[in-house]
Amino acid sequence: MRPARSGLPKGWPQGLVYITAPVYSRLCAAEVQKSLHTPSAVTDVLKVPSGPSPLARITKIGNPSHPANGQSGLFAAQHLPPDTFIILYLGLFHTREDADPDSDYDLSLDRELGVGIDATRMGNEARFINDYRGVGPPGPNAEFREVWIDAGRGKMERRMGVFVLSAGKSGKRAKGIAKGDEILVSYGKGFWSERQKEQDAATDADS
Ligand SMILES: C[S@@+](CC[C@H](N)C(=O)[O-])C[C@H]1O[C@@H](n2cnc3c(N)ncnc32)[C@H](O)[C@@H]1O
């Protein structure tokens, strides 16, 4: 897929900031940033092209049986073999202190440091990746993996990347993700139990 001429990916909503590198919150101090730039033992360093990804496209979901009908999702723009790096998850890098507890786009990068990546107001195509539950396939076809990237001038930076799942020992996922299929991860049970608690609290408040 060719990116839109504006430099934004096709389907990017107006009013949302598209970023190609992390933005650090005021509380995400230099000390925290330093630990995100200092690898202890690095095996692989990814060189990631900046700008809209040719591998995936944002698509509006118009399917009443999809649990995120009316919202958007991220779909494969070409066949993606197992373990393919798809895209980085970008957003506002923040700490525990300035986390937004109501965010639906917050991904943890480092639990010990308390650093998360919130793509509510700014991010890239990865913010549109839905959870597999209720969509149809029996499980996810992609996952988040921590990566180190080559940030240029000899600098390495720690990020979160989205990868196609491995083929598996029995090879049951050897096909990877077919062109046109939705890229689906698991947000984890914690995300959905938190959501359930919020809904229960709202119902209790209404009654
Ligand atoms: C990170 S966003 C995913 C992109 C979102 N669909 C959009 O268009 O902005 C997470 C939100 O998507 C929706 N979502 C994602 N996967 C879902 C699923 N399996 N079932 C129901 N809602 C889902 C929920 O509203 C969730 O809070």
Question: Would you kindly provide a written description of the structure presented here, covering whatever features stand out?
Answer:
The chain is an alpha/beta fold and 207 residues long. The protein has one domain (17-189): Beta Complex (Beta-clip-like). Helix content is 12%, strand content 27%. The chain is built from two helices and 14 strands; from the N terminus they run ββαββββββββββββα. The strands form five sheets. Strands 2-7-9-8 form a four-stranded mixed sheet, with no helix packed on it. Strands 3-12-13-6 form a four-stranded mixed sheet, with no helix packed on it. The longest helix has 18 residues, at 189-206. It is globular and about 50 Å long. The mean pLDDT is 92. The structure holds S-adenosylmethionine (SAM). Residues 67-68, 71-73, 104-105, 127-128, 130-131, 133-135 line the site of S-adenosylmethionine.
Helix-strand layout with pairing:
Layout: E1 17-18, E2 23-24, H1 30-35, E3 45-46, E4 56-60, E5 72-76, E6 85-88, E7 92-94, E8 106-110, E9 115-118, E10 122-123, E11 130-131, E12 142-150, E13 156-164, E14 184-185, H2 189-206
The structure holds S-adenosylmethionine (SAM).
Pfam family, one: SET
Protein name: SET domain-containing protein
Task: Briefly characterize the structure.
The protein is α/β, with parallel strands linked by helices. It has two helices and 14 strands.
Indicate the CATH class. Answer: Mainly Beta
Radius of gyration: 18 Å
Structural class: alpha/beta
List how many beta strands DSSP finds.
Answer: 14
Cα-to-Cα separation, first versus last residue? 49 Å
Determine the CATH superfamily. Answer: SET domain
Main sheet properties: 4 strands, mixed
Bound molecules: S-adenosylmethionine
State the CATH architecture: Beta Complex
Overall geometric form: globular
The H-and-E topology, N to C, reads as: EEHEEEEEEEEEEEEH
Strand content of the residues, in percent?
A: 25-35%
- How many DSSP H or I helices? 2
- Summed up, the domain count is 1
Indicate the low-confidence ranges by residue numbers.
Answer: none
Might you state the CATH topology name? Beta-clip-like
Strand order of the largest sheet: 2-7-9-8
Indicate the percent of residues in helices: 10-25%
Query: Mean pLDDT, as a whole number?
Result: 92
